[in-house]
Structure formats: structure tokens, C-alpha cells
Amino acid sequence: MVLKGKNLFIIFANVKIMSRILAIDYGQKRCGIAVTDELAIIANALETVPTKELIAYLVKYISKEEVSLFVIGEPKQMDNTPSDSVRYINPFIGRLRKVFPKIPIERIDERFTSRMAFQSMIDAGLGKKARRNKALVDSISATIILQSYLETKTQQ
Q1: Is the pLDDT of residue 135 over 80?
Q2: How is the chain split into domains, by residue range?
Q3: In CATH, what class is 17-155?
Q4: Which of 17, 57, 75, 147 fits as disulfide partner to 83, beta carbons 3.0 to 4.6 Å?
Q5: Would you give the DSSP letter of residue 31?
Q6: What angle do CA 106, 107, 113 make, to 5 degrees?
Q7: CA 113, 150, 153 angle in degrees (round to 5)?
Q8: pLDDT, position 144
């Protein structure tokens, strides 16, 4: 059955456009950011932003795009205890909650995301010079964090 014209419009008119989920790979110098499409199905790298400019960047982005959830990487040691990076991330999460009190925050284990990002760059055929681009690694890491979150939600 092929749908044309009015029938196709009715189907698309009934599709509820949701808002995006935004993931952050928080670092002391830079933060990788990834977002989903409006249906929260596909994770895409967005940008890498200097950490000191992150809140301002998010304010500007959220003024243009609706975001329903923040997903922030949770760094852990191999024994599942929090890593030292938590002392930098927790104050940021506090600021994020103050600036965006209506947007919930979820955490997801980010162990191995940098290694996975680096390996994906190798698999994509990027040269050594491109693989040294830490901003690219951070944005890919944020995408991996977001994709991991989406996969855990579909398995529940």
C-alpha cells in the first residue's frame, strides 16, 4: 500500500515531535557534547566546547532547541568506585541544576569511552594527525555516552 497526499500528511501530523537528549563528556579543559534527533533515536556529535564556556553555550543552545534530559558521563575506576574527576564534575552538575532546574540529569558510566572514541577514529581510517585532535575525541566520547544511554533505555 502506497500512501499519498492527504493520507501521508495525516500520518506525519500524528507523529509527536519530542525534544532532544543532550550528553556531556565533561573534562577540565574541554567538554564534548552530543545530542539526539528530536525523536531521541539517533545520537550525533554536536561540538566540543571549552569547559569555562559550557554553561553559556548550553544556555544559547537550549534557547533554540528543546532539551528534555541531560546525560552526563560518570567516571569510575575499574573497581566501580568514583574516579578523581568527580570532584570537578559534581560542582558543574550543581551549577547545571541551578541554571536548568526543569531539565533532569542522568548519569552513565563513561569508562573506556575515550578508548572507544580513539578506536572508532582508527576504524574510520583517520590519520594520526586527526587522531591527536582531543576535541574530536571528546565529541566522539560524548556521542558514545549518549548512544550507550539510548541503548540501555531500549533494553529496559
Answers
A1: no
A2: 17-155
A3: alpha beta
A4: 75
A5: E
A6: 135
A7: 125
A8: 87
